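PROTEIN DESIGN WORKSHEET
SECTION A - STRUCTURE
LENGTH: 145
TOKENS:
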């Protein structure tokens, strides 16, 4: 089973994938957003190229569990992505599972990893979303294993 994890932000999308043994999540890249149309096209290509069965998308929630403004933006992105996937001839929509996953604190965890690794503040932007996507995906994988 191939699982893709996404951390969707305003300027970037962190992308992670599971290993072949379904034990660990591995960051692939930080995609710098262009436009909704191009972003979705890129994600669909990534799904197809990696034969993804499950798409795990981080849902930012407030600490009290409610959905805030950023969470609503992510939900809107997911709706548009689902709509495009539905009409894509390259993806079997019946077999692609899309999961919204609570991502509270994933960015803070990623920031801590980068700070502990002594990555300079100006360089953290290159990696933070990829690492956050890795934490989101790993959390999901731990819950199903």
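SECTION B - SEQUENCE
RESIDUE ASSIGNMENT:
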């Amino acid at each position: 089973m191939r699982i893709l994890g996404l951390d969707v932000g305003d300027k970037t999308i962190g992308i992670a994938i599971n290993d072949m043994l379904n034990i660990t999540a591995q960051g692939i890249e930080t995609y710098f957003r262009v436009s909704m149309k191009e972003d979705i096209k890129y994600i669909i290509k990534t799904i197809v190229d990696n034969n993804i069965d499950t798409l795990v998308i981080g849902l930012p929630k407030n600490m009290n569990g409610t959905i805030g403004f950023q969470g609503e933006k992510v939900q809107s992105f997911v709706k548009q992505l689902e709509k495009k996937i539905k009409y894509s001839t390259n993806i079997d929509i019946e077999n692609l599972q899309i999961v919204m996953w609570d991502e509270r604190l994933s960015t803070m965890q990623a920031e801590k990893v980068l700070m502990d690794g002594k990555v300079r503040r100006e360089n953290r932007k290159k990696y933070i979303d990829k690492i956050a996507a890795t934490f989101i995906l790993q959390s999901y994988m731990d819950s199903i294993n």
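SECTION C - NOTES
The beta strands are 3-8, 12-18, 25-32, 54-59, 97-102.
The two ends are 12 Å apart (CA to CA).
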